[in-house]
Specification:
heterodimer; A: alpha/beta; four-stranded parallel β-sheet; 14 helices; 51% helix; 12% strand; B: alpha/beta; 8 strands; 55% helix; globular
Chain lengths: 371, 406
């Protein structure tokens, strides 16, 4: 049973195209959702399928017509996949303006992939105030209006239901994190599959599968034989990278990965107006490099996670050319030094094909932790 | 040559350098000093009488005087990636060592950040606030992918504007004065109108000025546009350019064979090199987006907010393109030289497509080179020379063909 569940996650995570064709051939309208945060609840409520577009590990070629080399390869690979026709059949892409590169991704998309409409989602950074919430709500209304033009139908009742579907999924993913932190037999590769597959499945379906996995794991005795670590960064879905973690007997007991747990920390609060509640959710979000907070509570959050889970070290997976993470790294480094927590940084790129340097770095890191 | 102390060049230079000295002296007296991002509404600190320092200007100055690399390295030793904006790295270095013979500044009591220029600014000021343990006033003006400033954005930014004022009243102990605000708006408007008119004198052939002059003069538009002396100096600059045209003179001291638009932030560490390669070939950089970037023209409060929501880095590709097309056409640019600036991911991120569209719309050749606004390690003089040479050859061929296929 357990193997079947893990196999399902692996298949979905490693072959999103099959999922996409499954939906489009059934006549579903698929909306691509790019990093880092988007109101998937709205898309879901309008009878469309939110489908994660965080790029892929591939050689960049066509996107170079639009981007210089020193730009984040997540954005470049999203554009590359769009230009290559990999997203053929989708109805639109929604891209937020949460970092400089995402701003340019939307602008380039209009000309590089004209067959797939671009819907911008503009978030405020002073988000947790009445005027910030009002601005978020207004941006959501724009997205709704654009999705309506593409055949979506919006109602507050439907959004309230979708908010609940997403809250339930968040809850299950948080529970999953707790369970995985005491079951090191689930490998880093498998863990990545579970999180990644969430982007390519309907959330209610993913919830069922994750619940089943949790159920299976809870029947087992805890297993904490490997070296516990916390992993942070924007994305860490590379099979090669996770295989290196596994080869070095590392156990991810908590993550601060934007593409993984950061998505599930905050729920839509209860409220009479489902759209305002959804805007309130964004207002409540924090602990992330693309969400403004000059106190950077994210750093303490990582330290707390490391302590709570008795992690022996923290791995910062730095996506190359990602400014927001590069700024936070300096503060994280100082905090880890102060707390005597071992921190290692590895730089990852979507086009990476040689992992020897990362392998050596992680081997050294492991040796430091087990000494 | 004797320095003409009544010239706009001298006066503008003095305003820019006095601003640094004034802030240092104010700090000694115990008055509030703010470090401010370049597109933060100057109306706020100016009205409240807060002394200001603009780290971007300081970093440009440090880089132009040759210390960009050593300062960047100080920040890199602390863990800042060399992929991060070099202005930010230089500023972090200064915040740490608190000295630079290339450009001293007063240390801040408060930080004023507006991210209408880039999201990088948000992260930069977050880190400064933590490192210096001082308050940060964050005015968030989101990137606008639409063609107009929406009512929702107007309300969002307006509310923040007054929030910022209230917070600064508490920090400084000073009260907002509407009369002073009106005065500042008037001076800012006068400075901006004169700046835009002065830069548009490049429409004359030959241009009455060397475009590289703008790179120096714009410092005043960034730091002091709300001051009376800035308004008067900009009006003097306009007058001089008009006189140059009437007299058939120019500050471009060479035969103007070709006219180009320069796109992107200047390569401050290589200002002389980049300028010489053009001038030596009779190429005058007659326009740049700086001409628009720091010209804040408005009458009402609402218009002022909209202007800050519409600065060059906060608008979509089409609006960015159209601004540049207008500058190229109005100033008769015959080519576009694009600086692919390693420090600026936002500016460089859709530059390829925008440049293609400008080239097509204006029917002019487009050439780009790799460089950096402040880190000298990211520039190759040989590549720059080759690219400029290529651009000049195409422009010459175009002229020879006189309307033939370009």
């Amino acid at each position: 049973m357990m193997n079947d569940i893990l196999k399902k996650f692996h298949e979905v995570a490693t072959c999103p195209r099959m999922q996409l064709e499954h939906y489009t051939s059934a006549g579903e309208k698929v909306i691509l959702t790019s990093p880092v945060y988007l109101p998937e609840e709205i898309i879901h409520s309008m009878g469309m399928i939110p489908f994660g577009a965080w790029g892929g590990d591939l050689e960049l070629s066509k996107s170079k017509e639009y981007y210089p080399a020193f730009v984040c390869s997540i954005a470049q690979s999203i554009l590359e996949l769009g230009m290559k026709g990999t997203y053929k059949g989708v109805t639109a892409i929604v891209i937020p303006s949460l970092c400089d590169t995402l701003k340019t991704l939307g602008q380039n998309w209009k000309y590089a992939v004209p067959s797939i409409p671009f819907i911008p989602m503009t978030y405020p950074q002073n988000r947790n105030s009445d005027y910030g919430i009002a601005f978020t709500k207004s941006s959501y209304e724009y997205v709704i209006q654009e999705l309506e033009k593409l055949g979506g139908r919006f109602s507050m009742e439907s959004l309230a239901k979708s908010n609940n579907v997403y809250n339930e999924h968040n809850k299950v993913m948080r529970r999953l994190n707790e369970v995985l932190s005491i079951h090191s037999e689930i490998t880093a590769v498998q863990r990545s599959d579970i999180f990644k597959s969430a982007y390519f499945m309907k959330k209610e379906e993913h919830t069922v599968w994750v619940k089943a996995l949790i159920n299976e794991l809870e029947k087992r005795v805890r297993n904490c034989e490997k070296t516990p670590v916390v992993v942070s960064g924007i994305i860490a879905d590379s099979q090669e990278l996770n295989q290196i973690f596994d080869d070095n007997n590392l156990h991810i007991v908590a993550d601060d990965i934007a593409a993984q747990s950061r998505q599930y920390r905050v729920d839509v609060p209860e409220g009479e107006d489902a759209l305002i509640s959804l805007a309130q959710k964004f207002a409540n979000m924090d602990n992330c490099s693309v969400l403004y907070n000059y106190k950077k509570p994210r750093i303490q959050w990582i330290i707390d996670q490391a302590k709570e889970h008795k992690a022996k070290g923290v791995i910062m997976v730095q996506t190359k050319f990602c400014d927001p993470e590069e700024f936070d790294y300096v503060i994280l480094k100082k905090a880890c030094e102060k707390e005597d927590i071992t921190l290692v940084t590895i730089e990852l790129d979507r086009q990476m094909c040689k992992f020897e340097q990362i392998k050596t770095t992680i081997e050294t890191f492991r040796d430091m932790l087990i000494l | 040559m004797a320095v003409d102390v009544n010239s706009a060049k001298y006066i503008l230079g003095k305003i820019a350098s006095d601003a640094y000295v004034d802030a240092i002296e104010a700090k000694k007296r115990g008055e509030t000093v703010a470090w401010v991002s370049s597109n933060f509404p100057v109306e706020i600190p100016e009205t409240l009488g807060i002394y200001t320092v603009y780290p971007e200007n300081q970093a440009a100055g440090i880089a132009a005087r040759g210390a960009g690399e050593s300062m960047c390295q100080i920040a890199e030793e602390d863990g800042y990636s060399n992929d991060i904006c070099a202005y930010a790295r230089i500023n972090f270095a200064y915040a740490k060592i608190r000295e630079s013979k290339e450009q001293e500044v007063a240390m801040p009591d408060v930080l004023l950040c507006c991210n209408n220029i880039c999201s990088c600014m948000t992260k930069w000021y977050e880190n400064l606030a933590l490192e210096l343990e001082i308050p940060l006033i964050m005015l968030d003006i989101p990137y606008n992918p639409h063609n107009e400033v929406s009512d929702a954005e107007l309300q969002y930014v307006t509310a923040q504007f007054w929030d910022a004022v209230r917070k600064l009243e508490v920090i400084t102990g000073r009260k907002w004065d509407d009369k002073k605000f009106e005065e500042v708006k008037e001076y800012s408007g006068r400075s901006s109108r004169a700046w835009i008119k002065a830069t548009s004198c490049a429409r004359y052939t030959p241009s009455p000025f060397n475009g590289f002059d703008l790179l120096n003069h714009m410092a005043v538009m960034v730091t002091a546009r709300g001051k009376k002396e800035a308004a008067e100096a900009m009006e003097l600059l306009l007058k001089e350019y008009e006189e140059n045209h009437a007299n058939g003179t120019s500050t471009f001291y060479a035969e103007e064979k070709h006219r180009i638009m320069f796109e992107g932030i200047a390569c401050w560490p290589y200002l002389r090199v980049t300028s010489r390669a053009l001038k030596g070939r009779g190429v005058n950089m007659v326009t740049t987006i700086y001409a628009d970037a720091f010209g804040f023209e408005y009458d009402t409060f609402e218009e002022m907010i909209k202007v800050y929501c519409s600065v060059p880095n906060a608008i979509n590709l089409e609006k960015s393109r159209d601004k540049r097309v207008k500058l190229c056409k109005n100033n008769h640019a015959e080519g576009l030289l694009v600086h692919t600036n390693r420090s600026c991911k936002l500016w460089s991120g859709f530059m390829y497509e925008m440049s293609r569209q400008i080239g097509e719309e204006c029917d002019i050749p487009v050439v780009s080179f790799d460089g950096d606004q402040a880190d000298p390690r990211n520039f190759s003089e040989a590549q720059y020379e080759t690219r400029v040479q290529g651009l000049v050859e195409i422009m010459e061929t175009n002229k020879e063909m006189e309307g033939g296929v370009k």
